[in-house]
Design brief:
Length: about 290
């Protein structure tokens, strides 16, 4: 009888230990390609070329050129995150609550899943071929309507040009992130508001938007972190003409002129802090909004 009880007690333990095998690849992947490289960056930020401890790299982050690069990156990230949040939210509302044909939502979600991952050199080339100085849309506007967007002040290789390019993957990502929250709006809430005499505008202002606000703010922070860490698209599109922090980081670590790896590690440390805070706030806001939309 004692042996039987011991066997029954040990069985759940064995099942529990075996269930952890499923997350071993994820843990190893995170350790090898995320945690260890991040730890190496943090250590390198406090070392000089000889490996001795120093705070000079952190102090050099306050150079005017580096502060300017962080400022431009923060501004582009905030602008593209706000635009992505706004238009993505409206798209999700139209597809989920807009009484559109049933095929619209799965088509939008499929496209969003693909477009949210479309970046780098292909995205930069697509926009250059579309809105570049000799792009298709640029030529059509000039030949049909006589509008020269570049003579009017538009420039794809600028702050607003790069923000526009970022919107291509920011809007689909917002659709994917906010759709579960929009699905969580209960029909009973709208029916109760209508029964009490609330108009549609009052329902959205007093019920729906307050419920969705934590999810929207969390999505904004996620989009902000997504844009802040992007480099391939910006580098392929603008080269070094737009001094954002990711391009400056690349120049410090791999460049021939601004080669200072330890300063690059310090730049990366600042980026880790900013994106880490953004993602941490996103997780907290998501857990907070989940209590309302269950």
């Amino acid at each position: 009888m004692t042996a039987t009880l011991a066997t029954a007690t040990d069985a759940p333990r064995r099942r529990l230990s075996l269930s952890w095998l499923g997350v071993v690849p994820f843990v190893l992947f995170s350790l090898m390609f995320l945690l260890l490289p991040a730890a190496n960056l943090v250590i390198g930020a406090f070392q000089d070329p000889t490996g001795a401890f120093t705070l000079a790299n952190i102090a050099n982050l306050f150079q005017p050129s580096i502060i300017r690069s962080y400022t431009i990156s923060l501004q582009i990230s905030a602008a593209s995150a706000f635009g992505g949040m706004l238009f993505g939210f409206l798209l999700a509302l139209a597809a989920i609550l807009g009484h559109l044909p049933r095929w619209v939502r799965p088509t939008l979600m499929t496209f969003s899943g693909v477009a949210s991952q479309f970046a780098g050199v292909p995205l930069a080339f697509a926009f250059l071929a579309t809105l570049g100085r000799t792009g298709l849309v640029t030529a059509l506007l000039m030949n049909i309507f006589g509008i020269n967007i570049y003579r009017s002040g538009f420039n794809l290789l600028s702050f607003w040009g790069l923000t526009l390019v970022y919107l291509y993957f920011q809007i689909p990502l917002m659709v994917l992130v906010i759709s579960p929250a929009v699905d969580g709006l209960k029909k009973e809430w709208r029916e109760a508001a209508s029964t009490l005499g609330a108009t549609s505008a009052q329902y959205w202002r007093m019920v729906a938007l307050p419920v969705l606000w934590p999810s929207m703010l969390g999505a904004f922070l996620l989009l902000f972190a997504n844009a802040f860490g992007a480099i391939a698209t910006a580098y392929a599109l603008t080269g070094s003409s737009l001094n954002i922090v990711t391009i400056l980081l690349y120049a410090q670590i791999r460049g021939d002129v601004l080669h200072d790896p330890n300063l690059g590690y310090a730049l990366a440390l600042g980026m880790i802090l900013i994106t880490g805070l953004s993602n941490g706030a996103y997780i907290w806001l998501t857990s907070r909004s989940a209590r309302w939309t269950r």
